[in-house]
Amino acid sequence: MPERIITISREFGSGGRTIGKRAAEKLGIPCYDKELIEQIAEQSGYAADYVKEETESLNGGLFSALFADRSMGLTNQDKLWTIQCRIITELAEKGSCIFIGRCADYILEERENCLNVFIHASVEKRMARIVKQYGEREDTPEHRVKEKDKQRMEYYRYYTGRKWGDVYNYQICLDSGELGIEKCADLICQLY
Amino acid sequence: MPERIITISREFGSGGRTIGKRAAEKLGIPCYDKELIEQIAEQSGYAADYVKEETESLNGGLFSALFADRSMGLTNQDKLWTIQCRIITELAEKGSCIFIGRCADYILEERENCLNVFIHASVEKRMARIVKQYGEREDTPEHRVKEKDKQRMEYYRYYTGRKWGDVYNYQICLDSGELGIEKCADLICQLY
């Protein structure tokens, strides 16, 4: 029986990670989230903090990534991308599971039995959630939310060529702010 | 108990209409589709065929609509838009129901208990479906599908100011080509 994979792409503060974990618990399958960062760190030899930063946004933005000096070979970020692709592909071969973010929907696009989900919510609901989950920072919640989304969008665009959050990339898109975290997790389990 | 409304926006050939009708059957509520055209025709005094054409695309496209001569008052199309808004609003007041298309998601955006759904599918699956449902035409299936979507997108854009098919307009977006018509109808019923 081929493995069934779920990939969850999500806006910052939409609860996508929580939804993924709840669905994984209900289905009795692994959910790969921060564990991926640790595995990439292990395989690459870089520190986990560095890996997290390099695999969640483009240093200096899209322009900088496009025109980075590759005369000596791939940048660190490119190398980490390659390792990330390999790890996700290998984990998908091992058994049914859920991936949170990491462009897994794109990396696994050739696979059958892969359900790609996009979780979103209004800016207001996400602002409230990130303050509740992560506390206050120097930046305003609104700025944090928009900045993080922009980083994800640029990273995704750069490495996949696709538009992050575009309805056509996913079999199902859910507004977690309106539907609720539990309901989203239930729907995902049903489609599994 | 306030009425619960479902609006279904859909790509041409994605089976959105069928999904809406199936969901309405399962829920035991009305599904307003072509009936809306007839009601608009009745209230406006125009023929149903004319109404259908004027409420599904902009004559001459977006440019023409933007620069139409309104020195003598609203165009026919504007008048029909106004009647369409009124009819949809009144029907939503009468009781729980499903609306197929007609920018109902926008018209009813202030309502609570309104579930907005977007149905989409790959161009290939939609091409196959429209030939099966509607038969061959002079135009290629690919052209028909793309042309119809373009019309919907422009009409929606013009009257709502929003981007048709944008994930942020809907609580749930479903790829009917991947998930199947019946599954989509079931999911909608669950969220009702």
Please specify the SSE layout and strand pairing:
Two copies of one chain form a homodimer.
Chain A: E1 5-10, H1 16-27, E2 31-32, H2 34-44, H3 48-54, H4 61-66, H5 76-94, E3 97-100, H6 104-107, E4 114-120, H7 123-134, H8 141-160, E5 172-175, H9 176-179, H10 181-191
Parallel strand pairs in A: 1-3, 1-4, 2-3, 4-5
Kindly summarize this structure in a few lines.
2 copies of one chain form a homodimer. Chain A is α/β, with parallel strands linked by helices.
How would you explain this protein's 3D organization?
The structure is a homodimer of 192-residue chains. The first copy, chain A, has helices spanning 16-27, 34-44, 48-54, 61-66, 76-94, 104-107, 123-134, 141-160, 176-179, 181-191, and strands spanning 5-10, 31-32, 97-100, 114-120, 172-175. In chain A, strands 2-3-1-4-5 form a five-stranded parallel sheet, sandwiched between helices. Chain A has 192 residues and is an alpha/beta fold. Helix content of chain A is 55%, strand content 12%. The mean pLDDT of chain A is 91. Chain A has a single domain, classed as Rossmann fold (3-Layer(aba) Sandwich), CATH 3.40.50. Chain A is globular and about 50 Å long. In chain A, helix 1 crosses helix 10. The first copy, chain A, contains ten helices and five strands. At the A-B interface, strand 5 and helix 10 of A face strand 5 and helix 10 of B.
